[in-house]
Amino acid sequence: MKNILDLNINELQNYFEQSGEPKFRVQQIYQGIYQKGYTNFDQFTNLSKKLRQQLAADFVLRSFQELERITSPLDGTTKFLWQLTDGMKIESVIIYEKKRVTFCISSQVGCALDCKFCATGKMGWLRDLTVGEIVEQVLQMKELAERPPTNIVFMGMGEPMLNYDNVMQAADILADEAGLNFSRKKITISTSGVLPGIKRMADEQRPFRLAISLNAADQQKRLQVMPIAKKYPLEQLFEAARYYYQKTRKRITFEYVLIAGFNDSLQDARNLVALSRKVPCKINVIPVNSIDENFPAPSQESVARFEEAIQESVYAVTIRNRKGWDVQAACGMLYAENEKKQLKLKTDKL
Ligand code: SF4
User: Fold this and answer.
1) Which of 39, 60, 81 is a domain's end point?
2) Domain limits at 56?
3) Is 350 part of any domain?
4) What would the pLDDT profile of 136-157 be if each residue is shown by its tens digit?
5) Among 34, 60, 86, which residue terminates a domain?
6) Are residue 107 and residue 54 in the same domain, yes or no?
7) pLDDT-derived band of residue 321, with 50, 70 and 90 as boundaries?
């Protein structure tokens, strides 16, 4: 059955028009779903019983179940594993900081891009998420979070630019004034460097923030960890970034996952500084959440040295702590753990 969260205001309007209902029904539905947090149609007591029954026959309002939830005793980072209606699983994370509460959401089940340091990349691409499945992650976490979200980032499973239409429609729904009214500036679409998506976002003047996962400041090194760099080399990536800035005048954030012995030397820092001068940008340095011994996490001293080396030359640098490293908070890790458990259960039964 269709998820009502798939529909934007216009689509809902068409639905009610076809059902012979007045236009203001859309506002009632949007308010109920996004402002009052209703989770089933019985809660819409401002609608007739007949209409509630019709809606329940045509749509679902929640489509997936919580399979696992792990909260870090260190910093409260909470990771969720959801089961979708077809049995597939995705992850979302709530990251608590002093003033910020970031909801990190998925855009695909699995991912085709196979970044070497990422557990999701090992799954391969299984399917795109629907608009409703993207929106629902935010609504479900909003019900469970200690504090409401201040930021939403598309940095969970999947490459958002490879599910562009659904990601943008979901972001539009989350930002709609009649609904959640989430600030467009606080929604970040993160890409590993899929150039057509970056250009399209610029041409369409999408009001959301753009982050690019860089992870290495020279092409050869980037290729070692991000196979996508073969199709879209670093030089072209920066041309696209400049194009984006010229069109939108918005600063891009470059994400740099710091891996010990791979991209954390002073020379790497100098290369990163040189690159960052090519386009107005901010840099987020994120010590890796290690998935295997090939990608060890850097020591605190090495993070501090790297930060110091780039700090003065770059417009803004943020060092993100390894949030929730004790709860498999890196993308795809909880999924992988759950799969292992399922496999063990099956083998134990044999
Ligand atoms: S880091 Fe992102 S783009 Fe790369 S494999 Fe993981 S989910 Fe895909």
Assistant:
1) 60
2) 2-60
3) no
4) 999 999 999 999 999 999 999 9
5) 60
6) no
7) low
DSSP 205: T
Output the CA–CA distances (angstroms, integers) from residue 262 to 16, 271, 300, in the order listed. Answer: 56, 13, 15
91 is annotated as an active-site residue: yes
Structure tokens at 236: 């072209």
Which amino acid, one-letter code, is at 172?
D
Which tokens sit at 139? 């609504």
For residue range 104-136, list pLDDT tens digits in order.
Answer: 999 999 999 999 988 898 899 999 999 999 999
The CATH number of residue 10's host domain is: 1.10.150.530
Cβ–ligand 1 distance for 114 under 6 Å, the answer yes
Average pLDDT over residues 46-67: 96
Asked whether 141 and 187 are in contact (CB, 8 A), the reply is: no
The rounded mean pLDDT for the chain is: 91
Whether residues 156 and 292 fall in one domain = yes
Measured from the CA of 108, which atom of ligand 1 is nearest? 7
Based on the fold, state whether residues 158 and 183 are members of the same structural domain. Answer: yes
User: What separation in Å is there between the alpha carbon of 226 and the centre of ligand 1?
Assistant: 9
- Residue 217 counted as domain residue: yes
Residue 315 has pLDDT above 70, yes or no: no
Cβ–Cβ < 8 Å for 143, 107: no
CA–centroid distance, 1 to ligand 1, in Å, is 30
